[in-house]
Amino acid sequence: MIRCDDFDQALAHLARTTRFALPGVTYASVCFLRAGQPASVAASDPLIKDLDELQYSADGPAMSAIRGREIVLAATLTGTTRWPRWRSAALDRGVQGVLCAPVDVDDEVIGSINLYADRPGAISDDEQLTALLLAEHAGLLLAAVRHRGRTDADPTGTGWDDTDLIGPAIGIVMTQRRCRAGEALAVLRDAAQATAMPLPQVAERLVASVLRAEG
Q1: Mean pLDDT, to the nearest integer, of 88-116?
Q2: Integer Cα distance of 89 and 77 in angstroms
Q3: Cα R_g (the chain), whole angstroms
Q4: Other CB atoms within 10 Å distance of the CB of residue 138
C-alpha cells in the first residue's frame, strides 16, 4: 500500500487485506471524513460499501468510533438498540456483529476500520487490541500515501521507498511529542525541507540517534 500514489486506491487495498486479519471476520471496510465531511469508502464487498455509505446520513458504529475516537463493538447486533436505521439495514444484509476502530491519518483526515461478521459473537472483546494495532498501522501508511500524492514535484527528493526507516521515525516522533501520526509526519517533512535532505535520510538519522542513545 505504501507504494500507492492514490489515497482511494490505498483504501481499497487496505479493505481487502484487513478482511483476513482476524478470524471470524466476513467483511471489512474503511471509511473516512475529510475536514469533517464524508470523503471515501472502500470495502471488501459492494454490499458493505453501501452499508457504510448509509452511515454518512444515518448514524452507525463507524461514525461513533470516529466521533468518540474509541473502539466500538457490537458482538451481536440483535442485542443492541444503537443506530436503529443502520442496524436494520445491516441485519437485512446478513451482518450480525461489527467492530470499528478509529484511524487518524492527519489533521484533515480521520476515519475508521470496520470489521463485520455474519455470525453473532464471531467478533468479541479479544479482537479489540488487534483492531487497534491495525488502525494505528493503517494511519501511518495512509499518512505516507497522502504525503506522497501531494509531492509530485518534490524538491527534497523525499520518496517513500524506504518505508522501513520512515515508519519507525514517525513512531519515534509520536512518542517524543505525544502527537498523532499526521503531526509526526509533518515534523519529519519540515526537517527534510529545512535541511535540504531527503526524507528517508532524515528518518535514518533520527532512528540511528535513538539507537545510539539506547545503546
Answers
A1: 90
A2: 11
A3: 18
A4: 24
Phi-psi region of 83 (alpha: psi -120 to 50; beta: other; left: phi over 0): left
Q: Terminal CA-to-CA distance of the chain, rounded, Å?
A: 33
Residue 122 has a CB neighbour count (10 Å cut-off) of: 20
164, pLDDT greater than 80: no
Note the pLDDT of residue 157.
44
Q: Residue 205, class by beta-carbon neighbours within 10 Å (0-12 exposed, 13-18 middle, 19+ buried)?
A: middle
Strand ranges, E, within 77-142: 97-104, 109-117
C-alpha cell of residue 158: 523525499
* CB-CB contact of 131 with 115 (8 Å): yes
Q: At what angle do helices 7-18 and 128-150 cross, to 10 degrees?
A: 160
Residues 155-170 as b or e (16 or more Cβ within 10 Å = b): ebebebebbebbbbbb
Which residue, chain included where needed, has cell 467478533? Answer: 123
pLDDT confidence band for 167 (50 / 70 / 90)? confident
At 57, list the grid cell. Answer: 446520513
CB 121 within 8 A of CB 76: yes
CB atoms within 10 A of CB 3: 13
d(CA 112, CA 155): 33
